[in-house]
Amino acid sequence: MERDTETVHEAYSFVCLHCGHGWEEEYEIRHTTDLAGHRRADYFARGARVRSPLTLTDCPSCNLGPIRILRPGRVNSTRPYLA
Ligand SMILES: [Zn+2]
Q1: What is the whole-number distance in angstroms between the Cα of residue 65 and the centre of ligand 1?
Q2: Ion ligand 1 contact residues with beta carbon within 5 A
């Protein structure tokens, strides 16, 4: 049984350091605290449960990576890092 649920929406921007592909995804993040006091976060995107964006390693464009995670609106500012 969950006694405490906090839902937040956060948008993350990603950029692939391999091919330069950049994209954004908005997540619904449900923070819950179980009866033992353990905090956990479940991530949902477009209505489906997904892995944490913090563990995202695959680029949807080239399937390689690595992926750099940015906050929204910062994709363009990373262009100088791209080859
Ligand atoms: Zn890529």
Answers
A1: 5
A2: 16, 18-19, 21, 59, 61-62
Residue 67 Cα to ligand 1 middle (Å) = 8
Can you tell me the distance from the alpha carbon of 1 to that of 28, in angstroms, rounded to the nearest whole number?
A: 20
Q: Is 70 left (phi over 0), alpha (psi -120 to 50) or beta?
A: beta
- Domain residue ranges in the chain: 2-73
pLDDT tens digits for range 13-58: 999 999 999 999 889 999 999 889 899 999 999 899 998 888 888 8
10 CA → ligand 1 middle, Å: 22
Global model pTM greater than 0.70: no
